[in-house]
From TrEMBL, chain A:
The chain crosses the membrane at residues 20-49, 61-82, 110-135, 147-164, 170-188, 200-224, 263-284, 323-347, 359-386, 393-413, 419-448, 469-492. This is Putative tricarboxylic transport membrane protein. It holds the Pfam family TctA. It comes from the Bacteria. Signal peptide: none annotated. Residues 20-443 form the DUF112 domain. It comes from Rubrimonas cliftonensis. Keywords: Membrane, Transmembrane, Transmembrane helix.
UniProtKB/TrEMBL annotation, chain B:
This is Putative tricarboxylic transport membrane protein. The lineage of its organism: Bacteria, Pseudomonadati, Pseudomonadota, Alphaproteobacteria, Rhodobacterales. PANTHER family: TRICARBOXYLATE-BINDING PROTEIN (PTHR42928), UPF0065 PROTEIN YFLP (PTHR42928:SF3). Belongs to the UPF0065 (bug) family. The keyword Protein biosynthesis does not apply. Coiled coil: none annotated. The keyword Signal applies. It comes from the Bacteria. Pfam families: TctC. InterPro entries: BUG (IPR005064), Bug_dom1 (IPR042100). Keywords: Signal. It comes from Rubrimonas cliftonensis. Residues 1-29 form the signal peptide.
From TrEMBL, chain C:
The chain crosses the membrane at residues 38-55, 76-102, 114-131. The keyword Transmembrane helix applies. The keyword Lyase does not apply. It comes from the Bacteria. This is Tripartite tricarboxylate transporter TctB family protein. The lineage of its organism: Bacteria, Pseudomonadati, Pseudomonadota, Alphaproteobacteria, Rhodobacterales. Keywords: Membrane, Transmembrane, Transmembrane helix. Residues 3-140 form the DUF1468 domain.
Length: 508, 326, 148
């Protein structure tokens, strides 16, 4: 079967009424989650994962994926109208988005961000369609040595990209690694840090930790920064009649920006460890240096909004490639998405698309439809989302606590996991408060055990010799790519973070 | 992560039992199973494995023939070679709405890890089948048959992958190697799919697996089967010798059955025995046995309990003799 | 506070390393990397990094962070959230959620009794319908049944 017939088969799965309904619900919910300040795709996915529990896997995965990329659309609305990014990946969108709104161009800014998101998302899905089968083919030559190197690449990229607070980022990752070693050791069967408790044999449960860190932790932090008190006084009013639509000039001047942003964003998204946040910052700074109006960036330049918006959506799509074809999550949100797959008894990896063609291609097809739905929603339902912004945060806050708690409990009906979630919430708050990175912790919690098992398998296979990493061609390639990235990324990052001191948590 | 110690298992269990009794005890006595209760089906291994396939087949049959009145929620609680899933079932003590399927690790994991439970703790329902392992190499391998494999392995030690540590996956090749007179390194993986990927990438020299899980890849020619550990070769593997035929009979196979939590009510045990008698008569079950190349071996209730006990002692001896456990 | 958090992390790292060195073997029986290999590396790295960050912290010596104002509401929310965890165990999902919302909102959103009361009734209702009825998932069961 070629790609086209696979994709058509995917559409036939995605287009069934019930799946379409799940997809639309996911897209709406994703937008809402994105709109709420402090909550991005990882929080949205973690909190809503339990809700999808009783559903059929295909519909559930489509819905979760829609929440994942839908959050990127919603996150920008508050960046533009409130100067408050919905999540870290839309920080770059405030740089020119808010000035545009203040200059009375809120309408065009909102429409252009939706269009840019659509272009980024759709280009991303097209590239997934073409590249995922190729990646899956290549990854069939990957064994334990390659998996170890990929996990290392992910962690290195993450740490290199954290930037200013790198020491705290490393400590966060080490905490994640440490938690990842809890449980029965795969190779010897010996219990590690289980202290005789049956609850810890399988390790620290991932979902409660993710819900706690991203859901409760971010909520507490938002209360600390006073979001619930400032309320919504800062919303920029905009005219919905006369100057709502972008001008021809807006479209023409940003068409190449969209192309560049999409490709850059996608490539960054594919790299394990980098994510939508980094992609958006890099796209912004690249565009500023390329654009003729670069000097005007920061004062309300349309290209300065379009670049990060196409990039962060394309990056979300790009991150699906290592997830689907290798089973390796590249960011905190794809780590949560991986947990969702596993919960449904699906294990992404080189053989995944071959053994689950309907789910894999149904998911990809649903992303085309999802992006179209999100484009329509984000243009025509803007007034609705403005109303959501107006719901007082002090009422929203306790409600989120309730959803996190009941959601966590519903997964395994375990009070231990419920308490773990609350503990992770408090820890997550202090981590955010003191500049640590919960995203690095969560990613390390997933990649750590993967790296350890793969290294120990590798050394058993090679009878203790490290030469296996250079003897195998795929390993050598990965080492080459990793070295290039580690040398290249800091340069790009320094370049990108000149304006972006506020975007602290990496990983998207 | 101190909560494990704050809420000790005992207290949790007591609370769970109390809650269950308060909610459900009259219902159990009168009409088990109640249509209002969701059956919490634990699958102690990851998706796609033999245990997973069997559990989901039984669930499909129960649903299709309306044998179970309520909802069934199946969940993969993988980890620690089954320690996690069955550990969870263990904490459901007394609950008639917890259930799980067993496999070889149900016996071996408590032998090698300090699990709080032993196979005898659970309420046995039925042994349904045994399945056996097939040794395979990559299609690119120069090794064409088992004689070449043994010859090659004697000359330069090879590695063989399997799922889990100190598992049937380890015991079968270990016993075979002892009898055939070669040495090898065992590489432990978390799941069948990781181990298959490792073999396809030529990182592993060979691996063992349940034929049911890798039949697709054997049929497509990606994997080459060399030898089968069961007594008779299934149709799908026609032409592959058994270990017995080579004169290296090892007499070990993986017991697959159905269990309830410890101290489950007798009504529940009775009900499930009667129900499983219906399940194994269905054409779907016959098809499952055929398509997964299993050997049907059915015994019920306490006889199954005794079987588990015997198998555990047998495995223990094997593992001690190779020095894998103390 | 900041220093205290670093010290908590440091204590955790030291305890983690202690177990790694005391209980877990560096190499396995067959001479390969053992169960203690990674934990020892992680533990030592965590101690070193935390000490390093702590030294930075002491040198920077920033003033007391966050005004009382800033801390009050978040402290209330965290304290009530933890109380909610206890309530859930005792009274089950529905009652605990009602109590939690009513109490928390009366502090965070004072004076608006009608709104608060409505939210406290509607949210548990919707959550109950969604999880218990629609999704067929578990709500936390009550240990003590209230006579309502």
């Amino acid at each position: 079967m070629d790609v086209f017939s696979d994709l058509m088969m995917g559409f036939s799965v995605a287009i069934s009424p019930i799946n379409l309904l799940y997809l639309l619900i996911g897209a709406m919910v994703g937008m809402v989650v994105g709109v709420i300040p402090g909550f991005g795709p990882s929080a949205g996915l973690a909190i809503l994962l339990p809700v999808t529990f009783g559903m059929d896997p295909t519909g559930a995965i489509m819905m979760l994926a829609a929440i994942y990329y839908g959050a990127m659309y919603g996150g920008t609305i508050t960046s533009i109208l409130l100067n408050t990014p919905g999540e870290s990946a839309t920080v770059a969108s405030t740089f020119d988005g808010f000035p545009l709104a203040r200059n009375g161009r809120a309408g065009p800014a909102l429409v252009m961000q939706a269009a840019a998101s659509f272009v980024g998302g759709t280009v991303g899905v097209i590239l997934i369609t073409i590249l995922a089968p190729m990646f899956a083919q290549v990854s069939r030559s990957f064994g334990p040595p390659e998996y170890f190197l990929l996990a290392v690449m992910g962690m290195l990229t993450l740490i290199v990209m954290i930037g200013s607070h790198w020491k705290l980022g490393v400590i966060s990752a080490l905490i994640g690694f440490a938690l990842g070693t809890v449980g029965v050791d795969l190779e010897t069967g010996q219990g590690r840090y289980t202290f005789g408790s049956a609850e810890l044999i399988g390790g620290v449960y991932f979902i409660p930790v993710a819900i706690g860190l991203f859901g409760l932790g971010e909520l507490f932090f938002a209360f600390y920064t006073g979001l619930h008190r400032t309320g919504t006084g800062g919303i920029v009013q905009y005219d919905r009649q006369s100057r709502f639509w972008p001008t021809a000039e807006d479209w023409l001047s940003t068409r190449m920006t969209m192309v560049r942003g999409s490709i850059l964003g996608f490539v960054v998204g594919v790299i394990p460890g980098a994510g939508a946040t980094i992609a958006s910052l890099m796209a912004y700074s690249t565009e500023r240096s390329i654009s003729r109006n670069g000097h005007n960036f920061g004062n309300g330049e349309m290209a300065g909004l379009v670049a990060p918006e196409t990039a962060n959506n394309a990056a979300s799509s790009g991150a699906m490639i290592p997830l689907l074809t290798l089973g390796i999550p590249g960011s905190a949100s794809t780590a949560v998405l991986l947990a969702a797959f596993l919960l449904w008894g699906l294990r992404p990896g080189p053989l995944f698309m071959e053994t689950n063609p309907e789910l894999a291609w149904g998911l990809i097809a649903s992303m085309y439809l999802g992006n179209m739905a999100l484009l329509a929603i984000s243009i025509f339902a803007i007034p609705l989302f403005v109303q959501i912004i107006k719901v007082p945060y002090r009422i929203l806050g306790p409600t989120v606590v309730v959803i996190c708690a009941i959601g966590t409990f519903s997964v395994h009906a375990s009070f231990i996991e419920l308490y773990l979630m609350f503990a992770a919430g408090v820890i997550g708050f202090f981590m955010r408060l003191y500049g640590f990175s919960p995203a690095a912790l969560v990613l390390a919690l997933v990649l750590g055990p993967l790296a350890e098992e793969a290294l120990r398998q590798t050394l058993t296979i090679s009878r203790g010799s490290f030469m296996i990493f250079v003897d195998r061609a795929p390993s050598l390639w990965i080492i080459g790519v990793t070295v290039t990235l580690v040398l290249l990324l800091p340069l790009l990052n320094r370049f990108g973070s000149r304006n972006a001191a506020s975007a602290e948590s990496a990983g998207g | 992560m101190d909560f494990g110690t704050i809420f000790t298992r005992e207290r949790l269990q007591a609370a769970a039992v109390a809650a269950t009794l308060a909610l459900a005890s009259p219902a159990v006595a009168q009409d088990y199973p109640s249509a209002d209760e969701t059956l919490d089906w634990t699958i102690a291994f990851g998706p796609g494995g033999g245990n997973d396939i069997m559990a989901r087949n039984i669930i499909d049959i129960l649903t299709k023939y309306d044998l179970y009145p309520g909802d069934i929620q199946a969940e993969n609680r993988a980890g620690g070679s089954g320690a996690v899933g069955w550990g969870y079932l263990y904490t459901q003590s007394g609950d008639p709405y917890g259930i799980s399927t067993t496999s070889g690790s149900f016996v071996t994991t408590p032998l090698q890890a300090d699990t709080p439970w032993q196979p005898e703790d659970f309420t046995p329902v039925a042994l349904l089948t045994t399945d056996d392992l097939v040794l395979v190499v990559n299609r690119d391998s120069e090794i064409q048959n088992i004689e070449q494999f043994i010859e090659h392995a004697k000359a330069n030690p090879m590695n063989i992958g399997g799922t889990g540590t100190v598992n049937v996956d380890f015991i079968v090749p270990t016993l075979f190697a002892q009898k055939a007179g070669f040495e090898f390194d065992y590489v432990s993986f978390n799941s069948m799919s990781e181990q298959t990927t490792a073999l396809l990438s030529n990182a592993l020299d060979a691996m063992v697996g349940n034929p049911g899980e890798i039949l697709g890849l054997i049929e497509s020619g990606d994997l080459r089967p060399l030898v089968f550990s069961g007594q008779s070769v299934p149709d799908a593997l026609a032409g592959v010798p058994t270990m017995g035929e080579l004169g290296y009979d090892i007499g070990v196979s993986m017991p697959r059955g159905l269990i309830l939590p410890p101290d489950a009510p007798a009504e529940a045990q009775e009900w499930w025995i009667e129900t499983m008698k219906k399940v194994v008569e269905t054409p779907e079950w016959g098809e499952y046995i055929r398509s997964n190349t299993l050997t049907p071996t059915v015994i019920y209730g306490d006889e199954f309990g005794a079987f588990l006990s015997r198998t555990k002692n047998g495995f223990g001896e094997v593992l001690r003799s190779v020095g894998a456990i103390q | 506070m900041r220093i205290a958090f670093f010290l908590v992390v440091l204590t955790g790292a030291i305890f983690y390393s202690y177990v790694a060195f005391a209980d877990l073997g560096f190499l396995s029986r067959t001479g390969r990397l053992g169960p203690g290999f990674f934990p020892r590396i992680i533990g030592v790295a965590a101690i070193v990094m935390t000490l390093w960050a702590l030294v930075d912290e002491l040198r920077a010596r920033r003033g007391p962070g966050g005004a009382f104002e800033q801390w009050r509401d978040v402290a209330v929310l965290i304290a009530f959230a933890l109380g909610y965890a206890v309530l859930l165990r005792l009274f089950g999902g529905f009652v605990a959620t009602f109590l939690f919302l009513l109490l928390t909102l009366s502090v965070l959103n004072p004076g608006r009794r009608l709104t608060n009361g409505l939210v406290a009734v509607i949210v548990p209702g919707v959550v109950y319908l969604l999880f218990d009825q629609l999704l067929n998932a578990n709500m936390p069961p009550a240990l003590i049944d209230l006579p309502i």
